[in-house]
Design a protein that fits this description.
It is an enzyme of class 1 (oxidoreductase). Helix 5 crosses helix 7. The strands form two sheets. The protein has a seven-stranded parallel sheet with strand order 8-7-6-9-10-11-12. Strands 2-1-3-4-5 form a five-stranded parallel sheet. It is α/β, with parallel strands linked by helices. The protein is globular and about 70 Å long. The longest helix has 19 residues. The protein has twelve helices and twelve strands.
Length: 328
C-alpha cells in the first residue's frame, strides 16, 4: 500500500530542481514570491499542513508553535543552523525539527579562504580601480597586500567547517591553531597539523588571522567582545562566516577604524541583513551578503537532505537529521 502524500509548505523559493522533485514526492505549496513569510502567514501555514520547510529568515518561537495545527508533526529546516527555531517549544507541542548539517561545510570553507585572500591582498580595492577606470598601469608600490603563506591562522570552532578550513589553510602553508569546546582526537590534530589552545585569550594574542566557525548559543554571544578583540595583534585580520552576533560589531567597527585591527572579512552581521553602516565606508573590510554556502550544488544537496528527512518521517521513522531538544 502506498503511503499518504504529506502536505508540505515551503516558506521561500528553492532551486528549481529541488522544487520539482518535492512536487513529485509531496503535495507541496511553494510561494510565488521569494519574500519571507510574515508571522501571520507562518502561523496560517502551520495550521494546515503536515510539514513546514522554513529557512533562516523564519522566526519560529514558542508563541508560533502554540498556534500550530494538529497535523503539523515536522519542521524540516532548509539549512544547518536552527537558532531561529525554538526546538524545545516545538518538542513540547509534539513537533519534530530536522536540519541539514554539514551540507555547506566545504562551500563555506572555500568562501572563508576567499575572504582571507580578499582582505589581505586587497582584491576589492583592485577591482574598484579597474571598474572605475582609474588604473594608470602597474606600479611597484600600488595596492601592496600581505601573503597568507607562513601566517598563523586561529580557528574558533573546529567542527566540520573549521576542519575544512584547516585543510585548505595547510595547503597555503599556514600554521593552524584552534580553540574548541572539546579538543580533537590526537590523530585528527596530526592530520590537520593543528595546535590546540585551551585558552581562547592566549590563542588570540598569537594569530595573524582569526576565522570564526562556532554556532549561535548563549555562551557564544559576543564571544569576540571588545576585550578579546583588543588581545589581537594590530596587524591581525578577522573573518566571520558563522553567526553575526558572535562578534560585538560596534567594538569591531571602532577598532577597524582606529587601526587596532588591520582588516575584516564578514559574511554575517549582528543586525541580520543590516551591517553597521560605518563598516561600508572602510577599505580594510570586505562585506558579503551571507553567501558563504551559496553554490548550486550545495543548495540542491541541502534540498535532498530536507526531502530525505520528510520521506523518512512519512515512513514512520525519526528523520536522520532530527535536532534533539536541549531539554532532553
Amino acid at each position: 500500500m502506498s503511503r499518504k502524500r504529506l502536505s508540505v509548505v515551503v516558506t521561500r523559493r528553492l532551486p528549481a530542481a529541488v522544487e520539482h522533485r518535492m512536487a513529485e514526492l509531496f503535495d507541496v505549496t511553494v510561494r510565488d514570491s521569494d519574500a519571507p513569510m510574515s508571522r501571520d502567514e507562518l502561523i496560517a501555514a502551520m495550521q494546515e499542513v503536515d510539514v513546514l520547510v522554513p529557512t533562516v529568515n523564519d522566526r519560529l518561537d514558542a508563541a508560533v508553535f502554540e498556534q500550530a495545527g494538529e497535523r503539523l508533526k515536522l519542521v524540516a529546516n532548509y539549512g544547518a543552523g536552527t537558532d531561529h527555531i525554538d526546538v524545545n517549544a516545538a518538542h513540547a507541542n509534539g513537533i519534530m525539527v530536522s536540519n541539514t548539517p554539514g551540507v555547506g561545510a566545504e562551500d563555506t570553507a572555500d568562501m572563508t579562504l576567499a575572504l582571507m585572500l580578499s582582505v589581505t591582498r586587497r582584491i576589492p580595492e583592485g577591482l574598484s580601480v579597474m571598474q572605475t577606470g582609474d588604473w594608470d598601469g602597474w606600479s611597484p608600490t600600488a595596492l601592496l597586500g600581505g601573503k597568507i603563506g607562513g601566517r598563523s591562522l586561529g580557528i574558533l570552532g573546529m567542527g566540520r567547517i573549521g576542519q575544512a578550513v584547516a585543510r585548505r589553510a595547510r595547503a597555503f602553508g599556514m600554521q593552524v591553531h584552534y580553540h574548541n569546546r572539546n579538543r580533537l582526537r590526537p590523530e585528527t590534530e596530526a592530520d590537520l597539523g593543528a595546535k590546540y589552545w585551551s585558552s581562547l585569550n592566549q590563542m588570540l594574542a598569537q594569530v595573524d588571522i582569526l576565522t570564526i566557525h562556532c554556532p549561535h548559543t548563549p555562551s557564544t554571544y559576543h564571544i569576540m567582545n571588545a576585550r578579546r578583540l583588543a588581545l589581537m595583534k594590530p596587524s591581525a585580520v578577522i573573518v566571520n562566516t558563522s553567526r553575526g552576533d558572535v562578534i560585538d560589531e560596534n567594538a569591531l567597527t571602532r577598532m577597524l577604524r582606529s587601526g587596532e585591527i588591520a582588516g575584516a572579512g564578514l559574511d554575517v552581521y549582528e543586525g541580520g541583513a543590516e551591517p553597521n553602516p560605518r563598516l561600508r565606508a572602510l577599505k580594510n573590510v570586505v562585506l558579503l551578503p551571507h553567501m558563504a554556502s551559496a553554490t548550486v550544488e550545495g543548495r540542491e544537496e541541502m534540498g535532498a537532505r530536507v526531502m530525505l528527512n520528510i520521506s523518512t518521517h512519512a515512513d514512520g521513522f525519526r528523520p536522520p537529521d532530527m535536532v534533539i531538544p536541549s531539554s532532553l
